[in-house]
Predict the 3D structure of the following.
Amino acid sequence: MIVMNQNSKPSPAEGGVLEAPKRTLFQENWNLFRKNRLAMAGLVIFVIFFIIAVGGFFLTYGRSPVFDPALVRLQEKLRPPLSKPNLETLKPEELPRLGIYLFGTDDLGRDIFSRMLQGAWVSLTVGFIAVGIAVVIGVFLGGIAGYYGSSQIPLGHLLACLLLGGGVIAIVAGRTAMGISLILFGGATAALLIRVGYAEGKRPIPKALSVLFFNLFSVDVLITGLIDIMLCFPVFFLILTVVALIPSKIHYIMIVIGLTSWMGSARFIRAEFLSLREQDFVTAAKALGVSDWRIIFRHMVPNAMSPVLVSATIGIASAILIEAGLSFLGFGDASYATWGNILSSGKDFLFDAPWLTFVPGFAVLIVVLAFNLFGEGLRDVLNPKLKERH
Amino acid sequence: MLAFIGRSAIQKIVTLFFVSIISFLIVHLAPGEPSQIDPLNPKFTQEVLERFRKEFHLDKPLHIQYLYYYRDLLTGKSVSWKDNRPVLKKIYERFKNSLWLFILGTLITWTLSFPVGIHAAIRRGGLYDRSTTFLAYLLISIPGFFFAYMLIIFVVTHFHVPVIGMETFGISSTGWYWFMDRMWHLLLPSILGAAGGIAVLSRYVRNQMLEVESQDYVRTAKAKGLSPDKVHYKHALRNALLPFVTMFGLILPGLIGGSVIIESIFSWPGMGRMAYEAILARNYPVILAVNFISAILVLVGTFISDLLYMVVDPRIRL
Amino acid sequence: MSCGNEPLLSVENLKVFFHSDGTVSRAVDGVSYEVKEGETVCLVGESGCGKTVSVLAILGLVPQPPGEIPGGEILFKGRSLLELNEEALQEIRGKEISMIFQEPMTSLNPVFTIGDQIEEAITTHEAVERAEAQRRTIELLADVGIASPEERMKDYPHNLSGGQRQRVMIAMALACEPDLVIADEPTTALDVTIQDQILHLFRELKKKRQMALLYITHNLGVVAEIADRIYVMYAGIIAEVGNVEQVFRNPNHPYTMGLLASLPSRVRKGQPLYSIPGAVPDPAYKPQGCPFNPRCPYVNEICRREFPEMCDFGDHHFARCPIIFQERKNL
């Protein structure tokens, strides 16, 4: 020990080298993030909301939940918040659990507090699942466009995919016969392509079939075209149309919101991939013979995720808003209490029972605000350009 | 330049074609039929249904229906299923009502966002910046319908003016009183329509301005001895404004979008409400027409913004 | 060299700190230098040693916050620049002191023509007719070696090459015939051949005009070509001062010696190039005592404890190293 000490360099205490404290990237980001008070407030509210929503799910779930959001007490309708239940007219099991109507009751005498709890869980799942779907589609399509963008699509492949896809859609839409025939045609085309494709190199492609291998356009054109097409639809109107046409189940609503909001992530990922693909560490990985999938998922996706993370956080906020708007217009799933349909039921009693408007309204406002603030804080922290400015 | 215009026109037409197919498929492949909107209605007998189907080509295969529909739409012959009136005429009537909201809303948005965003950027980190930032987040996050109700409660209880509809029911006077009545009715929905826009646009202006303020040429301008006003409003602003010129094109789609929620809260007989009613009644010709026209507006809007960008930015010459 | 007359610019014990994340970066930590009329002075040092920040402070261009100037004095023609208000500084910027920046590619405003930008520099400070300003712009462009200036002045920056843009920047800096031109690494971003042309241009202009030049660079080759006097900076302080002859032939600070030793030269052909061990300290965590001590081959206990004095080696040659000073005296 002593010998080692004599050989070691002078420690900072002796007036030698003072080094900058070493911090991991996460710590550095966290320190930056912590300084943004609004974003921190957003994070705290988000955590609280998460706990309430998960708690709300367990407390309002099942046949006889702790807080029953669907329990109708017609004699107790439109009671203001904090009012005491009328003990004479209610059966014991109909009494609110808290002893009072914390947030009042609606026009059917249902306890708003229980309904808000269930609504919290609905908002949370709608936000996360819709955005989850959007991010998966966006990352997948954007990644393909960014990485394989320049490869060409032969006519035959496109034809096979269209036939198969059209068949599936037709079956889903109830036209089974048409769907099955489309799928059979598609399958036949695919089989033909595979056969001819394998034979390629051994013997030339027959003249008649060469048209199937005619290169139409690149993958990138296809996917950016798809994005452009989707951006042409007025989003809320499109969601409204689809939700109005299909049975109003909360799962469908999540899926529809997800399917109509992936374009942002796809664009981000595509742009990131296009620039990452040209960078040296990707070239180096390729030179080492790393497979495409490994390059994409181990090397490129982690580098491209930060803008997606930010847009996903903000996307959750807008998904919650969209769901609330749909419920408000009466397109929600009536079998669940959601913040939107509490608000919607309150619109007829705007002046008599303003709590029906204000309680869910402020709840949506606070949660959405929290997600937006948190997302913007993340954006600031993850943006290397802003970091230099600090 | 001409090549660019030609290329992008072809591209946009192809996109429009696919949009028309997709929206047609969405509407027609969804389970249920328009004739079934009201199965209990005794007027819908089997014969009526058959005639209805025949009249609107619903008995033909999908691709034929598609061709019929868009032929009718483009020649202006497409009619609403509900009242047999031409779709385009119906849309035009509602469009006139929505136009007022659109114009006033856009004016409010653009006149407020720029000064707010620019000042926030110049006083970065100050009280003004922080409070407008928070306000912007608040406006982005507030559900439109909730905000609408708060405003209605506020205006009705404080000013005692009716605000629902386009004008007070049964109002007969003309002149000043009529004008003020119209303005009151117009004001709330326009503010609501503009609220989100102000928040987004002012944040965008602020960020753009900050980005530009940190550029080297702004330092050069300062080092030249220019006054802060000239540095901010000539050298920085001129560069910061570039992307916004392109947004003139992008406000076009707002013309038809209207707001379903705001128009239905205020009983405003505009495009948004018409679309909403069409959806409720499964009135396919109207739904598809609204979708098609708004897609055209989006495409024309992006085209205009591309052109404007070329005109404004000396670096882009095609 | 004209010694004895009043310095045009003198910077006394200037300190510029940056606050970030609870730490204080002492970017400029007590720097003094002076520029006499008509003189060419070079500030030399590695990137991050505070050269640029110290000259930005002269023009009041240090962004505050996060920057802060806790001490020091900057005298220009006897006026204290740090005490002037913004309006008075605007009068000086561009008219009496002008500045040329490192990045010609981004230092010109992309949406205005170069003619507009040079004219603006003239009309801001002098009440002249537009036609007169234009005439002078053409003259300036011709002076800095831009061919067919009448047409070029209608160009936007993106039409020009990097070297041409730097010439435009120089023309803009000269527009009001300032007494002092500060050039912050004006050739670093350019190709070597263009660098040479720009340096040549500076020397030509110096001959024609009465102006002092404060030239910032990390390139010792450039220094040797143009400097009357050299200030070597390290980690926010001045390490050594002297003329070209003194600093290059007879360096008295270990840092300067290291810098010179790491130059490729024909004498030590075939041997590996020397490099100073270690790295420039983080300006927020500078070592105690002499900031160079962790990398210094002559280091001893005093260096780790005490901040070194500036030592006079005679004939206006100074270095901040008492150890070398003792050694030289004992010889």
